[in-house]
UniProtKB/TrEMBL annotation:
GO terms for molecular function: alpha-mannosidase activity; carbohydrate binding; metal ion binding. Pfam families: Alpha-mann_mid, Glyco_hydro_38C, Glyco_hydro_38N. The keyword DNA damage does not apply. It comes from Pontiella desulfatans. It comes from the Bacteria. This is Mannosylglycerate hydrolase. Residues 292-368 form the Glycoside hydrolase family 38 central domain. InterPro entries: Gal_mutarotase_sf_dom, Glyco_hydro/deAcase_b/a-brl, Glyco_hydro_38_C, Glyco_hydro_38_cen, Glyco_hydro_38_cen_sf, Glyco_hydro_38_N, Glyco_hydro_38_N_sf, Glyco_hydro_57/38_cen_sf. The gene is mngB_4. Gene3D superfamilies: Glycoside hydrolase 38, N terminal domain, Glycoside hydrolase family 38, central domain, Golgi alpha-mannosidase II, domain 4.
Length: 883
């Protein structure tokens, strides 16, 4: 028997073409009316877009309705979760998506019930590891609208859309299988039923007719709602009338997503469904909206900075501090949970994608900056907790130390940049840097001078002291998850500051053990891989073209000539190992090559003064391969550079989250970045990778109502700040040479998160005094609050948690229930690995961090593309019973 399942819902964008507070007023109306419907119609059921943040937004204004909302959730009328917010999957890290589900599902259960359906109605493409992430939260059914549209070439040569069944099995990168339904007729295919009986009947027949060619089961999914639509209050009597017309031939009812999807799965028992594996990014430009990867690039940079600080710095830093100190250093769980929730609010797909009104993105930028304010202060405090607990026995009381910390679970030998502020009176105009064994560390003095250092303490008034301001740079090997402590010794000979900038009329040569880089007087950059002898000439170029598109997609102007990016740059030498290239069109590149470093570091500064254009950095790899590798959440994706229908889209830009690599039979060329999410593997003679540095457009959308109106839209869709007339700075690295996916992703993380340095006096009271309250000399007194337990002293160097070299780190943190610790890593390779580390007594957990699971032991097999979550309660290195 045919069954029509009517799903009453709204798709709620917290902010989009209207700013948050305007949208919240509409949300208040919606929820107020919904609660009234619940009171009048006890059988009414409504989906709140699978995200819990809407209820938080509502209850901030109407806290007195909390009990009513909780009651309706418990009784199954108001359906919420598993998301905290409907985020974008390509622009958010895998860990961010896990935290989104962790926060959302936990809050939903606290409210009374969580609907465990993978509902992602309007995200602009779905990542290949999403099925595995869903399964880690007990979700095995998915609903999505985008990324599942396929084409074929007709006899006349035109492209036409293929008719595909909306029910299919989505197979994730690791093989996880999801019962999936594509919302081919969108999430409003039954948006609102007419109240007139005959019109309602005709409407049902139209909906059925639209579904018939693509629905392969007698169970029909009818989505009753759309963006920001309030619930249809007369729906139930209309459905009763339709049921009378249908009689016993069919059934129509208000239903739930989970009930409908479970029925569809049952319909397919004993027969096969179509299978689609990997990421869902199939379709034309209007479906995938890949222009959002580069719209408002400054937001993307801030987002990656925030994510990396939380995931790769603060959580592992405080986990180690809490473990090493036996709990004397408190893990800041409350503050980190708060920062994660604030970050998630910026991850809403219309926010992080840069496709909203200017006011929305002003709020986004401000929220990112507030997150960074708090995160940087937590980092400062954590490093102070570390350095102030270093054992000072045998050190001169007027001396100074410098501790360098590595928050990643891999040993790293990298460049460190540090600021030193010894007191003027202590005589450290010049100094040596000495390691734990008394060996001198060579360093480059980048800057020196004198100044005041402000002192803020909880016990005294703010004060200041006169100090030297030295900035140095040096190379150091630091153990996995650990630190090393160096000491400063006075020198009689004053060090010279490295020359900051000087002309290079003859060009410049930089070389280390891995590569040789020649910068010509004309600005051409040639790179020689010293290990293979393969040369890559003229590796950098630029492309700048007019863009008449919008925030959602790039549209080239067929009548516009390419914008001139020719002309030799001004070449200058920076310091001992750097070159600066300044171009007339507002771009400046800085190149550095350090000893022992496998990559050429690049910073790109764009001073954008042009409107309606797209500027790309072209990296000529000379690798002749149809495929490229791209880092994605919990994955390294292999993509073809030759799409089957090149004319389907105006461009074939794709997402990455920090790594793009191309490889042929004898050469590999990789690029790291710190938030350039959009790239394109060009089909040209030089194997070029194009990285979008700037995309400037004037509107959210040119045709927001999708009615092919040739007139300009309402001014509310204008977004002049989307032109990005500002300065934006990026960091990149060019990495020649062969490497595995895991090795590249680990190196990428090290590039994105440099080693941390913290300076302190041997006598920490020098910088904890401030100034006294009483002015009389005889009554002046300073109070000092130093680390609580003087018996807890850390050694000069220490190793923390270490991972197997074939694994990539994702998280080391306090469990969400705060009863244990969590370690998460993944295998990005296409084959299984044997993990010899970590050597940790733990149990394997799902992504939801619940207890139970098999015991972990070093040497266990980790399947291809698998994400591993371990839960442990004892200190790292201990081997007693755990939970």
């Amino acid at each position: 028997m045919k069954e029509f399942h009517v799903i009453s819902h709204t798709h709620w964008d917290r902010e989009w073409y209207q700013p948050f507070e305007e949208m919240r007023l509409r949300l208040l109306d919606l929820v107020d009316n919904l609660l009234a419907i619940f009171e009048q119609q006890p059988d009414y059921v409504f989906h709140m877009d699978a995200q819990i943040v809407c209820l938080e937004d509502y209850l901030e204004v109407r806290p007195h309705r909390r009990a009513d909302i909780a009651r309706h959730i418990r009784e199954g009328r108001l359906l919420v979760g598993p998301w905290y917010v409907q985020n974008d999957f390509n622009l958010c890290s895998g860990e961010a998506t896990v935290r989104n589900l962790l926060i959302g599902s936990t809050l939903a259960e606290e409210w009374g019930a969580c609907q465990r359906v993978g509902y992602a109605p309007d995200q602009f493409g779905l990542t290949g590891q999403l099925p595995q992430i869903y399964a880690g939260f007990g979700v095995f059914h998915t609903l999505a609208a985008r990324g599942y549209r396929f084409y074929e070439r007709a006899e006349d040569g035109a492209l036409r859309q293929k008719t595909m069944p909306m029910e299919f099995d989505w197979i994730g990168a690791d093989g996880t299988r999801m019962n999936s339904v594509n919302l081919a007729c969108w999430y409003n295919n039954a948006q609102r039923f007419p109240s007139d009986d005959s019109k309602a009947w005709a409407y049902l027949r139209l909906v059925e007719e639209n579904l018939e060619p693509i629905s392969s089961t007698p169970t029909k999914l009818l989505m009753n709602g759309v963006d920001h639509l309030e619930p249809q209050d007369d729906l139930l009597p209309i459905l009763d009338g339709l049921q009378k017309r249908l009689g016993e031939a069919a059934q129509i009812k208000q239903s739930t997503m989970i009930e409908c999807l479970e029925k569809i799965a049952a319909d397919f028992e004993g027969r096969a469904k179509p299978e689609i594996q990997g990421e869902l990014r199939h379709g034309d430009t209007t479906l995938i909206l890949q222009g959002t990867l580069s719209s408002r690039p400054y937001l993307k940079l801030l987002n990656m900075q925030c994510q990396n600080l939380l995931e790769l710095v603060l959580e592992p830093l405080y986990t180690h501090l809490a473990q090493w100190s036996g709990g004397a250093v408190e893990y800041p769980a409350d503050m980190l949970d708060y920062l994660w929730k604030e970050l998630q609010k910026n991850h809403a797909h219309d926010s992080i994608c840069g496709c909203s009104a200017d006011r929305v993105h002003q709020d986004n930028e401000n929220r990112f900056m507030r997150i960074l304010d708090a995160a940087n202060e937590l980092r400062r405090r954590g490093l102070n907790h570390l350095v102030q607990r270093i054992d000072r026995k045998g050190m001169d009381s007027d001396g100074y130390i410098l501790t360098v910390a590595n928050t990643l679970p891999y040993e790293r030998a990298e460049m460190v940049e540090a600021e030193l502020h010894p007191l003027l009176d202590d005589g450290f105009e010049s100094f040596s840097l000495i390691d734990e064994k008394g060996k001198a560390i060579d360093f480059e003095l980048l800057a020196t001078g004198e100044g005041n250092r402000c002192l803020f303490t909880p016990c005294n008034l703010p004060g200041q002291k006169r100090v030297h301001n030295h900035r140095i740079r040096f190379r150091l090997a630091v153990p996995a998850g650990g630190y090393r402590t160096l000491r400063l010794y006075r020198n009689a000979k004053e060090a010279e500051v490295a020359s900051t900038l000087r002309p290079a009329p003859q060009g410049w040569v930089m070389q280390n053990e891995f590569m040789r880089v020649v910068v010509g007087a004309d600005g051409q950059v040639d790179l020689l891989d010293s290990e293979t002898g393969i040369e890559s000439p003229d590796i950098f170029g630029f492309e700048d073209v007019a863009d008449v598109g919008e925030s959602y997609w790039f549209t080239p102007d067929p009548g516009a000539a390419p914008i001139d990016c020719t002309g030799n740059p001004e070449v200058a030498i920076v310091g001992e190992r750097g070159v600066r290239l300044t171009y007339a069109f507002g771009v400046r590149l800085h190149l550095w090559l350090d000893a022992g470093c496998r990559h050429l570091a690049v910073s790109a500064e764009v001073d954008n003064r042009r409107e309606n254009h797209r500027l790309r950095l072209l990296v000529h790899t000379d690798v002749h391969s149809d495929e490229c590798l791209s880092s994605q959440p919990f994955d390294c994706v292999r993509r073809s550079g030759s799409p089957p229908f090149p004319d389907l889209r105006d461009d074939w830009t794709e997402p990455n989250n920090g790594l793009v690599s191309v490889k042929d039979w004898n050469k590999q060329f990789s690029i790291f970045n710190n938030g350039i999410y959009e790239y394109e593997h060009l089909r040209d003679a030089r194997g070029t990778i194009a990285l979008t540095l700037m995309r400037s457009t004037a509107r959210i959308a040119n045709d927001p109502m999708c009615c092919q109106d040739t007139h300009a839209p309402d001014p509310m869709w204008d977004a002049p700040e989307n032109q990005c007339l500002r300065k934006v700075s990026y960091r990149l690295a060019i990495r020649p040479g062969q490497a595995t996916e895991a090795a590249l992703m680990r190196e990428m993380q090290g590039f994105q998160v440099p080693l941390l340095a913290v300076f302190d006096a041997v006598d920490s009271r020098k910088f904890s005094g401030g100034r006294p309250y009483v002015g009389e000399p005889g009554l002046q007194e300073y109070w000092h609050r130093l680390p609580g337990d003087p018996e807890i002293n850390f050694p000069l160097q220490r190793e923390g948690l270490a991972l197997d070299e074939k694994a990539v780190f994702s998280a080391l943190k306090r469990a969400h229930d705060r009863a244990a610790w969590i370690l998460r890593f993944f295998n990005p390779a296409e084959n299984a690995m044997v993990a010899e580390a970590p050597k940790l007594e733990a149990r394997v957990s799902d992504l939801d961090e619940r207890t139970g699971g098999a015991e972990w032991s070093a040497g266990m097999k980790v399947g291809a593309k698998k994400i591993v979550t371990l839960r442990f309660t004892k200190r790292i290195g201990e081997t007693n019973d755990n939970d």
